[in-house]
């Protein structure tokens, strides 16, 4: 399944985890995610999504990521962090005869730095992370601006951003080697680095002091390097998730 950041949400995060939690409190929950992949004739993935969120003075956990604060005050938060990136390609999940003859692309553990700057007009979120498992040996930089609006029990957090992926990152997930080309009949393709803009929205509704429901979505316009790949047949990808959480 090829998911485009739980990402940022990338997160640096799972997109289900972009909403705020009171400091020192633990929230757990469960939900489901739907992914529209850009690969040719590729299955739409539906999968269970565990949610774990904790915000403390020294460390945090949000969905698929966790970090340790190097700096933490009301305005600025700088962290060393790591997150699981589920982005991958499984040949057997495609109905394309050519794509079924390609090599598998594996998910990985990304690690690096994340930074958040809060203002009265919204907040800046950015992260720089690298593959730690020698799968892509790639680097991903994510930059976004978000605004959180609260009215009673409802919180809406829209945001726009852009993600830069290095040459190694794009080539691993979208490139076609000479050996794969001969085996599949696809043109050989070497991808370069590229920029992918996106828009996201997270909504949460507090049912009680402990229970909340959430919904989250992200639409990503693929970079030219991804769109031009013979593995791809659309210019975008999308991620939706929904679920329920309990705060202790």
From TrEMBL:
Protein name as annotated: MipA/OmpV family protein
Keywords in alphabetical order: Cell outer membrane, Membrane, Signal
Leader sequence segment: 1-22
Species this protein is from: Cronobacter turicensis
Residue intervals passing through the bilayer: none
PANTHER family in alphabetical order: MLTA-INTERACTING PROTEIN-RELATED
InterPro entries linked: MipA, OMP/PagP_B-barrel
Intracellular or extracellular location(s): Cell outer membrane
């Amino acid at each position: 399944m090829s998911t485009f950041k739980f990402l940022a949400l990338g997160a640096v995060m799972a997109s289900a985890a972009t909403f705020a939690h009171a400091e020192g409190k633990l929230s757990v929950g469960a939900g489901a995610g739907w992914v529209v992949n850009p690969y040719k004739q590729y299955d739409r993935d539906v999968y269970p999504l565990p949610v774990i969120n904790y915000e403390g003075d020294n460390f945090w956990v949000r969905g698929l990521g966790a970090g340790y604060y190097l700096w933490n005050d009301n305005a600025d938060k700088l962290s060393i962090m790591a997150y699981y990136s589920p982005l991958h390609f499984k040949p057997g999940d495609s109905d394309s005869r050519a794509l079924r003859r390609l090599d598998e692309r594996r998910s990985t553990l990304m690690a690096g730095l994340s930074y958040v700057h809060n203002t009265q007009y919204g907040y800046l979120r950015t992260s720089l992370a690298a593959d730690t498992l020698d799968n892509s040996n790639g680097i991903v930089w994510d930059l976004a601006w978000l605004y959180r609006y609260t009215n009673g029990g409802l919180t809406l957090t829209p945001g726009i951003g852009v993600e830069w992926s290095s040459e190694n990152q794009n080539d691993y997930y979208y490139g076609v080697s000479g050996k794969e080309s001969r085996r599949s009949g696809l043109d050989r393709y070497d991808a370069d680095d590229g920029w992918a803009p996106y828009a996201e929205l997270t909504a949460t509704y507090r049912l009680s002091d402990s229970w909340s429901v959430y919904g989250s979505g992200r639409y990503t316009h693929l970079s030219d390097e991804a769109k031009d790949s013979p593995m791809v047949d659309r210019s975008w990808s999308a991620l939706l998730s929904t679920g329920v959480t309990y705060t202790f």
